[in-house]
Amino acid sequence: MEAVVSASHGAVQILLVKLGNVLATKYALLSGVRGEIQELKDELESMTACLLELADGDDHNEQTRTWMKQVREVAFDVEDCMDRFCHHLSEHHGDRKGLLEYLHRMFNMVRTLRVRHTVATDIQGLKSRAQKVSERRRRYDLGESAGRSSKVLDSSSYSHHDNLDRWLPAIHGDGSGLVGMGNMTHAVVRLLSEKRQAAAGPRVLSIVGFGGLGKTTLATTIYSTPKLGGIQCRAFIPVSQTYDFRSLLESVLKQLSTLADSDKDDDPLRNIKKWTISDLVDKIKQCLKRRYLIVLDDVWQAAAWDQLKVAFPHDNGEEGSILITTRSHEVAKNCCTSPNDPVYEMKRLQMDDSQQLFFKTVFESGKCPNDLLKVSNAILARCNGLPLAIVSIGRMLARRQNKTSAEWQTVCDRLGSELETNPTLEGMRRILSLSYNDLPYHLKACFLYLCAFPEDFVIRRGSLIRRWAAEGLIIGMYGRSMEEIAQIYLDEFVSRSIVIPGQIGSSGNIRSCKVHDIMLEVIIAKSVKEIFISFLGSSQYSTTAGHDKVRRLSIHPGGGKEKRTFSSKNIVHTRSLSILGSTEKPVPIKFADLTLLRVLDLEGCGWLRDQDMKDICKLPLLRYLSLRNTAICQLPDAVGKLRDLVTLDVRETKVVEFPKGITHLQSLNHLIVGRYAYYTRTRSVKHFLWSGGAKVPLGLGDMHALQRISHADISTEKSSRAMRELGKLRQLTRLCVINRKEAKFWEPFAESLNELSSSLRHLMVVDGSLEGTELEFLVGLKNAPVFLQSLHLGGRLRNRLRF
């Protein structure tokens, strides 16, 4: 339920900022409806407060869900109305002074009269809609108590039930122990048995990993293993997301007392409910004066450990061991009591172990018939080494009477819908959903957004961050850039083990990531249910039926006729369109009709041609445009009409020169071009191609918002002169420049580089000039960049070069 709350609140929050800007700025042309705009803003602020209150609940009924959807739709429609009007005004606004400016304003007053009348009518209608949405909520009395489901489960038993469901199949599946976890068990037992130097307090070992990897299963095996000898008392405590501190202490004490006093008639815990917290802690410490092992399973917050650790004595040397399982790397680090405390990271099962576990779950003999081997491997590829998924899907298939290749292939293709409807898989879906539900409020929409990318797609950090920003999903923090904030978001996802990190940069930052296939199915199902993103193509969720206004649309490659199962009528309100890796143009997509688009990602679309750019350049509100890895050869001068464009990505295309019109893009932050040759499957080793840069036109200095230019080719007189204007771009932090001809072309660039000494953070200079002086111009810099974080040089370097 948090999905729709987060999405709705995000939409309204973005709009409130825009309405505030409109009311506070020079748009006096709206004076006739300023009162309506203020009332609409007040109404939406009240709705935002309600949404935040609802976010604290675990579940909501259909009436509340419908109300939140209506709030979101009103917010989107108001934002569309305001953006269209403000863009229309900006087209007719010029930098004129005095009498000329006055005459121009009067001319625009007449010229925009019809538009002002239209927006006034629209605003009044939207204000009425917003008020009716609020009245409808009051009419049906959708208060906090009414909005939540009456079904409430005890959190500790809920978590414990899930954990039992996770470890029992794996332990008892073959009667001989865990499949594929023998080495992990030996490794953790060895870590618990190692001697420590000058240790104070109990040894703490954290097992960390993605939900469903088998952390609880591993901890349970270690808890009962005879290899960990000398343990005199032990306790296994499921902590869960929402825990009660007193209940946890009582559970520890009951388990310890049962073991210690099993031969006594007296009940040592008589009247335990009347004991204070201090009494419970003191009694636990008395029980733990021997060698002990405590397992704290499923710890979600470091605060839980901070509370519980006071009950474990710190004065019995190496007698105590505490084993913690968690999904969060941050929690694992915070639970360490000394630098010597290890963190053990769970790994996914290899294919051989995955097959063994799957076949033993499905077939009594543990052997797979030859005709099912191919489809079994396809199912296991979707499971991606996740034991919980392997066992759950295996149990589902084992119950089916007809074990045919066609039936199993259908299950593989429709795994997402099976997760939603099949009772056997409900536990797995619930466990994986816990990771999403535990995310901070502001991160939920960002995480859901990951399902816009197809299965097995390597999500690049830079592209993801720029798309988040264009969608308005990033909440500002004082003193931090959007990129820094987004990096914090991504690091949080990795820390919580809900995305798989890919390439790691030299600075330690994550360069790319992937979403586990099963987790992807979970968040796709959530997105479709809450109409956060609509899907078309090969996805089983390929439909826009019931989505009266599609706001975000992701078209996945493949799917045959499914690509054509939609009408152009219900996608005209689309704000974000992703068509990644498609070889055929989806019909009836017409870019010119999608006038509300803010984000257009066409990476890898083999059908895209230069003539398509004519329609794309008619999208007035576009903020993010990626043409990466397409057949585009030339950008039209009309690209300058995209006045709101923030990101233009033409990397891995044949574009070798930017048109003059690009200098009209006053909002452009990221200008990305260039081509690489990749030498590894993960693209971690690459080489910049000399033909990969693009020439920039004169007038570059007017693009004051630019933060990144890569890669600019200065191998001509005109593009070299354009480099003289770089010094005006005081926001520039990342710059990549290539010279393939004469060394003299470096001179204007060097002059500008002196003026960017305090702004540049990343610099790449590639020299292929014909003279032998090569990079000598860097020696004569008067003001070299002093805050560089990365420097890449290509060319001949002399000993006297100092940076």
Count up the helices: 26
CATH 4th-level superfamily of the domain at 155-345: P-loop containing nucleotide triphosphate hydrolases
Helix content: 40-55%
> Poorly predicted ranges (pLDDT <50, ≥5 residues)?
1-5, 94-100, 144-177, 559-564
Q: Mean pLDDT, rounded to whole units?
A: 78
What is the alpha-carbon Rg in Å? Answer: 30 Å
Can you tell me the CATH class of the domain at 155-345? Alpha Beta
Q: Name the shape in a single word.
A: globular
Distance between the termini: 54 Å
Would you count the extended β strands for me? Answer: 21
The helix-and-strand class reads: alpha/beta
Keywords: Coiled coil, Leucine-rich repeat, Nucleotide-binding, Plant defense, Repeat
Region (Disordered): 134-157
Domain Disease resistance R13L4/SHOC-2-like LRR: 573-770
Family: Belongs to the disease resistance NB-LRR family.
SSE map:
Elements: H1 2-24, H2 34-54, H3 62-91, H4 98-111, H5 113-139, H6 144-147, H7 155-172, H8 182-193, E1 203-208, H9 215-224, E2 233-240, H10 245-260, H11 277-287, E3 292-299, H12 302-308, E4 320-326, H13 329-334, E5 343-345, H14 351-362, H15 370-383, H16 387-398, H17 405-413, H18 415-421, H19 426-437, H20 444-448, E6 459-460, H21 461-471, H22 482-495, E7 500-501, E8 512-514, H23 517-529, E9 534-536, E10 552-555, E11 576-579, E12 599-601, H24 612-616, E13 624-626, E14 647-649, E15 670-672, E16 676-678, E17 686-688, E18 708-713, H25 717-722, E19 734-739, H26 746-755, E20 762-767, E21 790-794
Parallel strand pairs: 1-4, 1-5, 2-3, 3-4, 9-10, 10-11, 11-12, 12-13, 13-14, 14-15, 15-18, 18-19, 19-20, 20-21
Antiparallel strand pairs: 6-8, 7-8, 16-17
Helix pairs in contact: 1-2, 1-3, 2-5, 3-5, 7-9, 8-9, 10-11, 14-15, 14-16, 15-17, 18-23, 19-23, 21-22
Domain Disease resistance R13L4/SHOC-2-like LRR: 573-770
Domain Disease resistance N-terminal: 11-94
GO molecular function, one term: ADP binding
